[in-house]
Every structure is written in C-alpha cells, then in structure tokens.
C-alpha cells in the first residue's frame, strides 16, 4: 500500500483525536500495524485511512490518489475496503450467510446468486461452512468474528482494516481469529490492523506505528520498534504491556 498523510488533524468537539499527523507508507508494506495506549488515535486514523470520515485539516493520499479532493473519490475508496471492528457487528436477526450476503447486495450491487456464491466461498475459506445457517447468538465469539472477517473479505477488498479485532475475545478465540488474520497476510491481502496483541503485531507487521495523544511517536519495522525503541514513552509502554 502507498499512503501519504500530511499534517492530518481530527477533532471531536473539544477532543483533538489526531494532531498534525505526518505518515508515509511505501509500496513494500503489505501489513501496517497501529499500536499505542487507548485514546491515542488508532481508531480515528483507521477511519480516516478507510475513507469513513474526513479530517478537519491536512492531506491524505492513498496509492497516490488525493482522497479528499471530492466526496465521490472518498466514497469510491471507502467501497473498495473491508472493515472489521472490535465488537461483533453482525446483525442478530440474520444468519451468518445472510450477514455476509447483505452488504454484497445492498452496498456493492451484486445479484443475489453471485452474492450467495461469493459469501459461501468466503465462509468456506474460514471453515465456517457448517455455520452458514446459524444466527450470531448460536456462534461463539471467535466464530462470530470469523464470520465478520468473511464478510469483510467477500468483496475482495483492496485494503482490509481491522480495528482491535480480538480485544473482546478470550485467549482461545483470540488465537483462532489471529490464525485467520495471519492466513490473510500470507495470501498477500493488504491489511491495516490496530491491536494490543504485541507478539502478533511483531510477527505479521511490515511496519509498525506507535500513536499516543493523537501524535505519531515512533515508527519503523517491527524488529526496530520492539527491540530498540528510541522514544521513552514507547519503551515505557512496552515495559508495561510485555512485563507478564
Ligand atoms: N466519535 C467520537 N466522538 C468523540 N470523541 C471521540 C470519538 N472518536 C474518538 N474520540 C476521542 O478521540 C481520541 C482518540 O480516540 P481513538 O481514535 O478511539 O483512540 P484509540 O483507538 O487509540 O483508543 C480519544 O480521546 C477519544 O475519546
Ligand atoms: Mg480504538
């Protein structure tokens, strides 16, 4: 992926979620991981990168395209991406299969037969064939998140945005969902991931960005960031989250 952010700021009322953020991500990066303390701006940055929201100021380029030039361009960008957020976003009154099909039909204009076939392929990819006709309440948290990932990739997104996809899961389900994400990275899927799973971040990231207080504090390849962080705030974060 190729990203260029210049002086991006985003405010929510009085809260400055991002403060004049600059970021360059080059084509060699397939998996970008955002880490840092809660409230640091990770989710805000992901929403901006996905085209779900616009910044208050600054410039944003994805694959050299100036995304903020018009609503149309931003909308086109948004539609090419797949999203998954922390809490389970499945519709409770729809089966797993219907949950995957719905956006294909409603958002992407697929015909029902094609939507069904794409959905079954996506579910099958994550060993969810036997669960296609179950409702979310009949599935474990890990299975629900796998259905949500199937839904996000069913459109074959250019970019998959995963915002703390395992933070509501117990360890076993976390492992199950991380395995699915790892398989996606191995297939070459471009991913932006925010996570508190430091071991996983280190294993899959091509580039890691540490955000705190709406600012980019440090960035680099995982080996550099995890082993030789230069910034005191980053070192202190690691010493806390990796102590036990
Ligand atoms: N929709 C929103 N409305 C009001 N404040 C928000 C909203 N989204 C984020 N914020 C605030 O912006 C800051 C950054 O939040 P966020 O991007 O969610 O950080 P992170 O994902 O790193 O925890 C926080 O202070 C948060 O409370
Ligand atoms: Mg967040």
Key traits:
single chain; 244 residues; alpha/beta; Rossmann fold; four-stranded antiparallel sheet; 9 helices; 10 strands; globular; binds adenosine-5'-diphosphate; binds magnesium ion
CATH topological fold name of the largest domain: Rossmann fold
* Order of helical and strand elements: EEEHEEHEHHHEHEHEEHH
Q: How many strands, what sense, and barrel or not for the largest sheet?
A: 6 strands, mixed
What's the CATH class label of the largest domain? Alpha Beta
**What is the tally of helical segments?**
9
Q: What is the number of domains? A: 2
Based on helices, strands and strand pairing, what is the structural class?
Answer: alpha/beta
Give the % helix: 25-40%
Question: Please, what is the oligomeric state?
Answer: single chain
Strand percent estimate: 15-25%
Unreliable stretches covering 5 or more consecutive residues? none
Strand order, main sheet: write it out. 6-7-8-3-9-10
How many β-strand runs? 10
Q: What does the overall shape look like?
A: globular
Bound small molecules, by name, code or SMILES, are: adenosine-5'-diphosphate, magnesium ion
Question: Can you give the mean pLDDT?
Answer: 94
The CATH homologous superfamily of the largest domain is termed: P-loop containing nucleotide triphosphate hydrolases
The value of Rg in angstroms is 18 Å
> How far apart are the first and last residues' alpha carbons, in Å?
34 Å
Q: What is the name of the CATH architecture of the largest domain?
A: 3-Layer(aba) Sandwich
